[in-house]
């Protein structure tokens, strides 16, 4: 499975972004997909997951602000991020089945 992450950028506090993780070579319906982030000088942290069955899970400070979803036909998983805060600034990565990683996309929240 090869993954292409996109959708990052710079946004003001309170703004929104939607990240995409598109798969090639295989679909995503048979796998769990996780979104991680790594802020500068900090350890990587898990922020959201979608299971094979479509159940969604959220971790830490993103609860209530981030939404993970998938489009099986498009072989893509999305992370909708609302009410962004400066503390959300990080490189975001998608991971499939604990095995395959996307290349990361930078999210910067700053006024």
Describe the structure.
This protein is mainly beta. The protein contains no helices and eleven strands. The strands form two sheets. Strands 2, 4, 5, 6, 9, 10 and 11 form a seven-stranded mixed sheet that branches. Strands 1-3-8-7 form a four-stranded antiparallel sheet, with no helix packed on it. Strand 9 (90-96) and strand 10 (100-101) form a beta hairpin. The protein is globular and about 40 Å long. The chain starts with a strand and ends with a strand. The mean pLDDT is 94.
Given as residue ranges, the uncertain stretches (5+ residues, pLDDT < 50) are none
> Could you tell me the mean pLDDT?
94
Q: In angstroms, what separates the terminal alpha carbons?
A: 37 Å
| Tally of DSSP helical segments | 0
Short description:
With 111 residues, the protein is mainly β. The chain has strands spanning 2-6, 9-11, 17-24, 33-38, 45-50, 56-58, 66-71, 76-81, 90-96, 100-101, 105-109.
